[in-house]
Amino acid sequence: MKLWNRYFTPKTIDEAAAILAEHRGGARVIAGGTDLLVEARANEHDPFEALVDITSIPDMTRISHDDASITIGAGVSHTQIVRSPLLQSEAICLVEGCSVIGGPQVRNVATLGGNVAHALPAGDGTTALVVLDAEADILFEGQRQWVGIRELFRGPGVSLLNPTRDLLIAFRFRRPAEGEATAFDRIMRPQGVALPVLSCAVWIRLDAARSTILEARVCVAPAGPVPMRLAEVEAAVTGASTDAAAVIAGAQGAARRALALRTSKYRATADYRHEMADVLLERTLGRALQRAGAVFVRA
Predict the structure, then answer these.
(1) Are residues 117 and 47 both part of a single domain?
(2) 199 lies in the same domain as 245
(3) Alpha-carbon gap, residue 34 to 55, rounded angstroms
(4) At CB < 8 A and 24+ separation, what contacts does 237-242 make?
(5) What is the mean pLDDT of the chain?
(6) This model's pTM is above 0.90
(7) Which residues are bridge partners to 7 per DSSP?
(8) Disulfide check for 158: which of 125, 154, 253, 271 has CB 3.0–4.6 Å away?
(9) 86 part of a folded domain
(10) Cβ–Cβ < 8 Å for 64, 71
(11) CA angle 262, 202, 151 (to 5 degrees)
């Protein structure tokens, strides 16, 4: 079955944008193709007029950094992320999230940009980017700009970006300071693919004495139509001492009040997913406290 008529491999962002504009809605951006090609094979429609492959654009396929921030191209594969010493050291929640996406073959071609562009609230890369407070470099309606990661999501599978016109170029987030750490974990249900029952990512910042949590960011997903931070959980742990048992108990209590998880025949019952939220908060907060050098952490 023919899936497309023309296939382009632009070498620059401007060239990719020009091809999209030339085809007036008839072209689609493609990177790893792990979602787009499955969708194309499943649907009975005419072939795509054109596919625009962004994986030959250097700015979209590399991981870079300066003194203040780390930038990851939207065309960077999950395997690149998992193997990056920089990200292993400074953004371990993203490494942990990308490491459980699909199998090795999928991770070798699937990209971080694809994970975000499909706008699914269960995206593991997305969950990590939310707690990293990442921004996205986008070409939107002809204008290049940086926007907060959560601004890209409009609903389940609904993105701010039009894949026939706009480009998701890169992500950036601040490099961690002393006393900051992250963690990610998920409960999955194998069904041919590793479907997440629930995922959780956290970021924390401790005081100089490593005895108090000064700030926290927490994302549990999927817990709604778009990825979101749990303000109630963040408030519960901010200002708390770094006694792991007390911090985790406070976070779990706040999560039970804040989360409205639903039963899904593809994931699990609401009751089970609420129990797993407790488990994930214990795992991720415990690891983040240890990584940040907290002085009162107990097993």
Answers:
(1) no
(2) yes
(3) 14
(4) 237/204, 237/213, 237/285, 238/213, 238/214, 239/212, 239/213, 239/214, 240/212, 240/213, 241/211, 241/212, 241/213, 241/296, 242/206, 242/210, 242/211, 242/212, 242/213, 242/289, 242/294, 242/295, 242/296, 242/297
(5) 93
(6) yes
(7) 51
(8) 154
(9) yes
(10) yes
(11) 70
